[in-house]
Amino acid sequence: MPSIHWRKRPLAVALSCIAVFSVAIILLLRSTGTNIDPKRFAHDVFRKKPGPTAAQLPPEDGKRAKAALISLVRNSEIDQLKQSMTELEAVFNHKFNYPWIFFNDEPFDENFKKVTRELTNAEIQYEQIPKEHWEVPSWINKDLMYASFDKLASENVQYSKMLSYHQMCRWNSGMFYKHPALDDYKWYWRVEPNVHFYCDIDYDVFRFMEKNNKTYGFTINLYDSPQSLPTLWPTTEEYIDAHPEYLAPDNSMEWLTDATNRPHHNFLAHGYSACHFWSNFEIADLDFWRGDAYDKYFEYLDKSGGFFYERWGDAPVHSIGVGLFADKSQVHYFDDIGYNHVPFVNCPDLPGKCRGCEPNEFFRGVGLEKENCMPVWNKMMEKAN
Ligand SMILES: Nc1nc2c(ncn2[C@@H]2O[C@H](COP(=O)(O)OP(=O)(O)OP(=O)(O)O)[C@@H](O)[C@H]2O)c(=O)[nH]1
Ligand SMILES: [Mg+2]
């Protein structure tokens, strides 16, 4: 047996020498940095820049929220939708693959389906809206409706003569969450055609909402045209008088009724500041809309006819609902999501994460700074904190 032992020893010595030599070489190379894969190096540098807080990081457990990206869209808007979808996939959804659900009052055509399927690895559902959710309700007097359209147009209320716009606002206010396609979901991110997403989002926004007990997330906080909703607030007050039990203890009444910043808006809107979260972007909890406080509120508004005799937008209706029936701590400003729907912008100051917007830019065009309602929101939130 010794002969075998002697034959193995030089091999063992040689292997040990090679191992020691290799370790030495690796250590030497590491110290000079020459063995660093340039891609990994870039990634490491990227990660050193300001990023999400620990609470926002993707969960290690890999769990997902019951969430979907949703969009009401026409076949004719495929190019504009392609832009929105491409950007949201690039900054967020290719990492999470939340399903897309498209809604339309008409059937989606083959081109729409073909184009959208090429833009994501996630599942897609194409849903038609039931007629009874979209059609003008039976209690609306059509003569009065068309007469109202003319009156609103004479007051320069945008889109007031477009019946489909009124239907869209009503559907977004109180119908979308009743669509059976959303029955199994709790969270949604609303996406419109022709919007931009400027910054990388490295965490699961839905899990963030869930973990932090948030109900509603927004990026832009604006004034609406008070001429579009003269009786929205008085009608809301009737509802609150009948149902004081639905008011959240720590609601946002101060923001909803502010008369200091733009008193004339408050005057024209009969006590409502006209401040609203711009609802073309929303990340929110479907259960909030499904709950009695909001759903009955929508029904009350709907019966009053203001979606057709005036031009109540889904943005003020959602905002008043959230402002009254949720605590302000349940509302989250996504200051880290770079977003644009013409002409307004939310642009975070996150070096290395955003492309295509100027930090803190709010609008593109002229003279729109007065449309920002964020100072009123911030004033209320500062007091709360
Ligand atoms: N399927 C369908 N979608 C609609 C209809 N009207 C509006 N939408 C969608 O509803 C959303 C809001 O409509 P917009 O026309 O963008 O309304 P807006 O954002 O107030 O107006 P803009 O400032 O012109 O963008 C968009 O996603 C549209 O694609 C409609 O009649 N049918
Ligand atoms: Mg739009």
TrEMBL record:
Keyword set includes Transmembrane helix: no
InterPro entries: Glyco_trans_15, Nucleotide-diphossugar_trans
Subcellular location: Endoplasmic reticulum
Annotated GO CC locations: endoplasmic reticulum; Golgi apparatus; membrane
Any GO BP annotation: cell wall mannoprotein biosynthetic process
Short name of any one Pfam family annotated for the protein: Glyco_transf_15
Keyword Transferase: yes
A GO molecular-function annotation: alpha-1,2-mannosyltransferase activity
Positions of the catalytic residues: 282 (nucleophile)
This protein's UniProt keywords: Endoplasmic reticulum, Glycosyltransferase, Transferase
Principal localisation: endoplasmic reticulum
Family, as annotated: Belongs to the glycosyltransferase 15 family.
Protein's name according to its UniProt entry: Glycosyltransferase family 15 protein
UniProt organism field: Saitoella complicata (strain BCRC 22490 / CBS 7301 / JCM 7358 / NBRC 10748 / NRRL Y-17804)
